[in-house]
Every structure is written in C-alpha cells, then in structure tokens.
C-alpha cells in the first residue's frame, strides 16, 4: 500500500468511528441511565460517567412492578400470528398476481401497493367502528386482523416481484404431471420463495412489534397492550424516574434489536428489495 | 384448463376480502364521515361541507398544517442528503465496514415510542444530556427547555424523526448504488473523469430512480408522523407542536368529534395522495424498463 492510500484508509476509519459514536449516543445514554439510581442520575449529571455499580434492579422493577413482562408477552401474542398470516396470504395473492394473466391483474396490484402508502389515519375510525360492531374491539384479534390486512399491501407487492423470477417452466412441468394449482403453490412456489419470506418476515416482525397506533386505538384494557403502548403507560406511572423509563425502553427495544442483529442481512435486503423494485 | 383459469381468483379471494374490509372500504368510509357530525357512538348525521368550513376557521388546523410543512422540509433537507452522504461514504469494500453500517442502521429497528422516550430524557431541561453537555462546554446560555418552548419544540421533535429516517434513506441509496455497475465507474475513470465529475455525471443520474423513491417515501413519512408527537408532547405546549395526524387522533378519540377528525384525515390523505402517485409512477416505470 502506498503512503497516500494508508493515510486515506486511516482517515476513513477515524471518520467512521466518530460518526458511529455520535450516532449511537442516545442509546448509550439510555443504556447507562438504566443502571443508575435516581439519586446518582440527579447528583452526578454527567452522562458520560459510567454507573457506580451495574445493577439490574431497575430492569426488574420495570419488568415486574412496571408490568413490562405482561406487555412483552402481549407483543408476542399479537406479532407472531400477524406475521404468519400476512406472509401466507400475501404469498398466495402474490403468486396469483405474478404467474397468472387475467384482466384486472395490474389494477389489483396497484390497489394493494397504493393502499400500503395511505396514511393509517384514513382507516382509524372505520376500523375502530367495524371492530366494535363485530365485537372484536379490545381483543388481540382486532389488532391481528388489521395488521394482517394492512401489511398485505407491502407483502403482496414484494412477494409478487420475487415469485415472478421463478421460471414458469417449473410450474408447467408440475401441471403436466397433474398437480393442482394449489399444490403447485405449496410444493413448488412456497419452498422457492423461502429467501424472500425470510427477509419479509424479519421486516414485518419488526414493524408489527414496533407498532403503536393500533394497539392504542383497538385495545382498551391495560393487560392486553403491546410493549409500545405499555411503555407509554410505564412513563405515566414512573414520571421522571428516568432509570426505570430507560430500562423499560431497552426492554421494549430488545426483541427487534436482537432480531436485527441476528438477521441484519435479511432485514436490509428486505428493505432494499421492497423499495427499489 | 378451466381450473387453471379460476385459480388466481381463488388465491386472491381471502387477501382481497381482507384488504377490502380493513383497508379500502375504511378509506371511503372516512371520506363519507368527513361530511358528517359523529360522536363515534350514535349514528352519524350528514352536514354537507360543514366540517370543511370549520376547518378553514380553525387556528389549530393551520398550526398543525404548518408544522407538517416544517416536518416535510426538514425531512427532505436533512435525512435525505445525509442518507446519500452516508451511503456514498460507507459503500466501500474495507474490512469492518459492515459494523459501521450496522451502527447506522440501528435506530431503524427501534419503535418510535422507544425513540421518543429516550429523547424525552435527553431533552430533559435540568438533567438531560443535551443541556448538561452545553453547560459543561461553557455554553450554558444556549440551554433551552427543548420540549416546552413553543418556538422550538417542533424542531426538537423533528430531530428525533431524522435519526431513523437518515438510516432509511441510506438503505435506499445503497440499494440504488448496487445498480451502478463497476465497469461504468472504471470506464469513467479511464476517460479521466475526476471525483466530482464521476459523482455528478455518472453516479447521480444512475441514482435517479432511487432518489425519486427516497424523496417520495421521506415526504410521506414526514406527513403521516404521529407517534413521536403523541408520545413526546401530545401536540403541546398549547398545541404548538401539533401535526395533522395527532390532531385528528385527539379530535376523534379525546373530543369525540370523529366527523371533524375524519375531515382532517381527508386533508392529510389528499396531500399524501399526490406523493403516492409519484411513487407509483416511478415503480411502474422501472417495471416497464425491465
């Protein structure tokens, strides 16, 4: 390597480190505050000082007395079926739109994509009312059904583009062998769509887990609330106890954060495929 | 053969029904509601354009609209170019670059509620990190009550949103950069184009589709922002940080005037619709090129 090159690479790393540190400083603050007692937070205001002793006391308080354990469980109960439902129905719909020619194909696709870009607020009161009318208001199912339906907009678009790349010859070969169209979907299309489903699943999991509005609008009981809505209740309960609130925030962030760190490639691929095609 | 003809309709049946009931019909129902007076419990009464007339005389509506415009401009002026700069900067094959990218992406994975809680603490006037840092640097006169000063509260909130939004636009631009073939860059280098020329004449034109999508998505995000405002200030102090999405939530679920709230939703929707069309146009255009 030439001298110039070494200098250049060195300054790249220097700038990259500085940017990353500034970028993550809010998380650093939440991380350290969650381990400090309130008297420590108030007396030693310098946030760059590490906690006197690392104790998980405040995490436990947020988890137990603060009710984060309940909210945490609720988020799983809402998110997992929502993701599975959205993926399955979208794969079905995406397959139909990718591999069959019929009259309103492009129109239906366009409606799914456009619906996905409509602000949530346009659906808020009617969905609230429908849920009330059919007796689903204040149940997990109300939120799950909405998530499945709404997320299909993005998922169908995404999966349709992916399924289009599967060679039609493969499907025709199975047809010659006498497979039904649904069997073709289950046995050929679905296995080949796995990479797209993985990317999309990770993305959808994060989005649905992080949703705030629908938990707020469709659920009234505190014991049904997902972790996002729960975190706001926690803040109301522990006003100005920043250590508990920081601990609660980290608990709420933990699952998507871990999922992201484990499956970063899928997550980013999903975002890229969804946006650029 | 017949079976095959009906197959797509069978497959689309459940998705289309679900989408029609929970997404499409509500959009039209909200438009209908915007012409009614409705408390959310009894039957809606039709009042024609009454809500729209009220809207024009509602100072909070103008505050919210104006704040949405602030969100929009800052979102386009800060996270969008910053995302491009980050994408260009980190788009290289050096060991460890992945770790830096991971760091930049991280806020993307956090819920707006989590972001809001962390930043509310950072903005805290007495013990929060920003004011503490300013005082430690001897800049005590710059300390402000970031979330209770009505002149700056909206900007404080926008900063929170810019954090994940920059990461998002960076992803979009990195996706676009993958479409810039190395041969093209090499050819430009051989032809003696310098860095700036390569950026303006080669990279930027090739990034045009990615840029249009990034602009549209950024604008749509800025206009439908709800959670940060709802969690951090609830539109306060004195409605000064209100945005349309939160204002309509408050009108509907706190003041039980869902008719008027629907009118606000329709206005927000019409503004966003314009950008949705730009986005769709771009998607279908690239579709044709394939």
Explain the layout of strands and helices.
The complex is a heterodimer of chains A (277) and B (290).
Chain A: H1 3-33, H2 38-43, H3 57-63, H4 68-99, H5 105-117, H6 124-133, H7 140-163, H8 168-176, H9 181-192, H10 194-209, H11 213-218, H12 227-237, H13 242-262, H14 264-276
Helix pairs in contact in A: 3-13, 4-7, 4-10, 4-12, 5-7, 7-10, 8-9, 10-13, 10-14, 12-13
Chain B: H1 2-33, E1 36-37, E2 45-46, H2 50-56, H3 59-77, H4 79-90, H5 97-105, H6 112-123, H7 129-136, H8 153-178, H9 182-190, H10 195-206, H11 208-223, H12 227-232, H13 244-254, H14 258-289
Helix pairs in contact in B: 2-14, 3-4, 3-8, 3-11, 4-8, 8-11, 11-14, 13-14
Keywords:
heterodimer, A: 277 residues, mainly alpha, MetI-like fold, 2 domains, 76% helix, B: 290 residues, two-stranded antiparallel sheet, 14 helices, globular
Please tell me about this protein's structure.
The complex is a heterodimer of chains A (277) and B (290). Chain A is mainly α and 277 residues long. Chain A folds into two domains: 3-60; 63-276, MetI-like fold (Orthogonal Bundle). Chain A is 76% helix and 0% strand. Chain A has helices at 3-33, 38-43, 57-63, 68-99, 105-117, 124-133, 140-163, 168-176, 181-192, 194-209, 213-218, 227-237, 242-262, 264-276. In chain A, helix 3 packs across helix 13, helix 4 (68-99) runs antiparallel to helix 12 (227-237) and helix 10 packs across helix 14 (264-276). Chain A is flat, with a radius of gyration of 24 Å. Chain A starts with a helix and ends with a helix. In chain B, helix 3 packs parallel to helix 4 (79-90). Chain B has helices at 2-33, 50-56, 59-77, 79-90, 97-105, 112-123, 129-136, 153-178, 182-190, 195-206, 208-223, 227-232, 244-254, 258-289, and strands at 36-37, 45-46. Chain B has a two-stranded antiparallel sheet with strand order 1-2. Chain B is mostly helical and 290 residues long. The radius of gyration of chain B is 23 Å and the shape is globular. Chain B starts with a helix and ends with a helix. Chain B has one domain: MetI-like (MetI-like fold), CATH 1.10.3720. At the A-B interface, helix 1, helix 4, helix 5, helix 6 and helix 7 of A face helix 1, helix 4, helix 5, helix 6 and helix 7 of B.
């Amino acid at each position: 390597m030439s001298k110039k090159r070494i200098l250049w690479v060195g300054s790249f790393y220097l700038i990259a480190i500085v940017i990353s540190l500034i970028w993550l400083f809010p998380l650093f603050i939440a991380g350290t505050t969650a381990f400090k007692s309130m008297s420590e937070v108030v007396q030693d205001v310098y946030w760059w000082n590490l906690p006197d002793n690392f104790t998980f006391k405040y995490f436990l308080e947020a988890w137990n007395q603060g009710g984060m354990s309940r909210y945490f469980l609720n988020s799983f109960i809402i998110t997992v079926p929502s993701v599975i439902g959205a993926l399955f129905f979208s794969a079905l719909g995406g397959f139909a739109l990718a591999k069959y020619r019929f009259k309103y194909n492009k129109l239906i696709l366009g409606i799914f994509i456009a619906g996905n870009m409509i602000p949530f607020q346009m659906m808020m009161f009617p969905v609230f009312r429908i849920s009330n009318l059919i007796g689903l208001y204040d149940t997990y199912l109300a939120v799950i059904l909405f998530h499945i339906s709404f997320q299909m907009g993005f998922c169908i678009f995404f999966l349709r583009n992916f399924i289009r790349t599967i060679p039609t010859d493969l499907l025709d070969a199975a047809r010659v062998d006498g497979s039904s169209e649904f069997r073709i979907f289950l046995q050929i299309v679905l296995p080949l769509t796995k990479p797209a489903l993985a990317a999309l699943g990770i993305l959808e999991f994060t989005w649905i887990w992080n949703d705030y509005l629908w938990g707020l609008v469709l659920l009234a009981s505190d014991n049904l609330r997902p972790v996002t809505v729960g975190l706001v209740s926690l803040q109301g309960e522990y006003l100005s106890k920043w250590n508990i609130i920081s601990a609660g925030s980290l608990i709420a962030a933990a699952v998507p954060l871990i999922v992201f760190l484990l499956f970063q490639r899928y997550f980013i691929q999903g975002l890229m495929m969804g946006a650029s095609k | 053969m017949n079976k095959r003809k009906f197959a797509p309709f069978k497959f689309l049946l459940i998705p289309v029904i679900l989408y029609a009931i929970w997404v499409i019909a509500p959009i039209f129902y909200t438009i209908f509601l915007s012409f009614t007076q409705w408390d959310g419990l009894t039957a809606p009464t039709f009042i024609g354009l009454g809500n729209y007339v009220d809207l024009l005389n509602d100072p909070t509506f103008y505050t919210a609209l104006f704040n949405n415009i602030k969100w929009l401009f800052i979102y386009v002026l800060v996270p969008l170019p910053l995302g491009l700069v980050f994408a260009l900067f980190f788009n290289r094959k050096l060991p460890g670059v992945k770790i830096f990218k991971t760091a930049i992406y991280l806020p993307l994975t956090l819920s707006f509620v989590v972001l809001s809680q962390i930043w509310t603490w950072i903005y805290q006037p007495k013990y929060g990190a920003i004011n503490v840092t300013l005082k430690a640097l001897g800049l005590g006169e710059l300390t402000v009550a970031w979330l209770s000063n009505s002149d700056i509260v909206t900007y404080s909130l926008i900063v929170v949103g810019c954090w994940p939004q920059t990461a998002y636009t960076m992803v979009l631009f990195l996706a676009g950069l993958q479409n810039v073939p190395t041969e093209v860059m090499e050819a430009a280098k051989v032809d003696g184009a310098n860095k700036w020329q390569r950026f303006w004449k080669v990279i930027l034109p090739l990034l045009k589709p990615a840029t249009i999508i990034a602009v549209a998505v950024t604008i749509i995000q800025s206009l439908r922002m709800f959670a940060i405002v709802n969690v951090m200030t609830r539109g306060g102090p004195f409605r000064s940080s209100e945005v349309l999405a939160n204002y309509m939530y408050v009108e509907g679920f706190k003041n039980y005037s869902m008719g008027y709230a629907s009118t606000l939703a329709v206005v927000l929707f019409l503004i966003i619709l314009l950008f949705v069309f730009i986005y769709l146009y771009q998607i279908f255009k690239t579709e044709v090129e394939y």
